Amino acid sequence: MPRPAPRILVVDDDDTIQRLFASALGRNGYEVVSVGSGSAALQVFKESSVEVVLLDIGLPDISGIEVMRQMVKTSSVIVILITGDDTSYSHEMVVQQGAADFIVKPVRIAELLLRIRQACEARRLAQAKERLVVELERMAIRDELTGLYNYRHFRNQLRLEVQRRLRYERPLSLIIFDVDYFKRVNDTLGHTEGDRVLANIAMAVGRAVRNIDIVFRYGGEEFAVLLPETHAEQAIAVAERARQAVERTVVVNNESVTISAGIAEHQPQESGEELVRRADQALYAAKRAGRNRVETA
């Protein structure tokens, strides 16, 4: 399905040029709004959706350069500057200040239409590239199965949170969860069902924690939660809430799935690795004590 033609704002104090541009652009499917001053252009731009601006530099009230600066400062609008003075301005100069293109009068309509299409396509490709970069960055730090942050991001975030805790002397706690008897689920029901269980546990834990807490898939059937500004006593309450949520909502063959949790609060001068080691030790203690419980280091 073809994309709709962009809405174009023509800004020129010459009525003849306004009519010429509006007629030619209209015949080519563009919706056109025409004004004769910089202040009017800024008002239209503020009050309505405009994707392309054909902007004469020599306006009677405000320089087209200044109008462009104000527009591109707050939006990704395409501005094509037009001037009859090719000695005071250059393509390089105006592009550096935010213009998408630069045309010297007299303007040939065929060239104008081509420049508009090229500028729109360049913007579309740039936006697609930006979206791709964002998606690749998201994929680099997210676990595909659960949508939680992955182990790689856990290591980076742990380092940052420990640095923040030491700098500001604020509490920091870590919870590591492990799914009880998860191997049985995989062995008896298969990995597809095991994946479903992990995804459901991730949702249950995510709903149980607070807004400031950061949840990760730590690896396999293990999950981790970093709790900034949190002492161990508060972390216990969060872990218990998550444990109960999983037991209540995640069911396999009419039996509740349970998790065990180990908690450690960061100690002065302790490294992130030492914090993880103590949380792991607490988790193992919970396993030895019968599972489906929370233990602290």
Keywords summarizing the entry:
5-stranded parallel beta sheet; 5-stranded mixed beta sheet; 297 residues; 51% helix; 2 domains; Alpha-Beta Plaits; 12 strands
Strand and helix layout:
Blueprint: E1 7-11, H1 15-27, E2 31-35, H2 38-47, E3 52-56, H3 64-74, E4 78-83, H4 91-96, E5 101-104, H5 109-141, H6 151-168, E6 172-179, H7 182-189, H8 191-208, E7 214-219, E8 222-228, H9 232-249, E9 251-252, E10 255-256, E11 259-265, H10 272-288, E12 294-296
Parallel strand pairs: 1-2, 1-3, 3-4, 4-5, 11-12
Antiparallel strand pairs: 6-8, 6-11, 7-8, 9-10
Helix pairs in contact: 2-3, 7-8, 8-9
Structural features, described:
The protein is of the alpha/beta class and 297 residues long. It has two domains: 7-136, 3-Layer(aba) Sandwich (Rossmann fold), CATH 3.40.50.2300; 151-296, Reverse transcriptase/Diguanylate cyclase domain (Alpha-Beta Plaits, 2-Layer Sandwich), CATH 3.30.70.270. 51% of the residues lie in helices and 20% in strands. The protein has ten helices and twelve strands. The strands form three sheets. It has a five-stranded parallel beta sheet with strand order 2-1-3-4-5, with helices on both faces. A five-stranded mixed beta sheet has the order 7-8-6-11-12, with helices on both faces. Helix 1 links the parallel strand 1 (7-11) and strand 2. The longest helix has 33 residues, at 109-141. It is elongated and about 85 Å long. The model has no long low-confidence stretch (mean pLDDT 93).
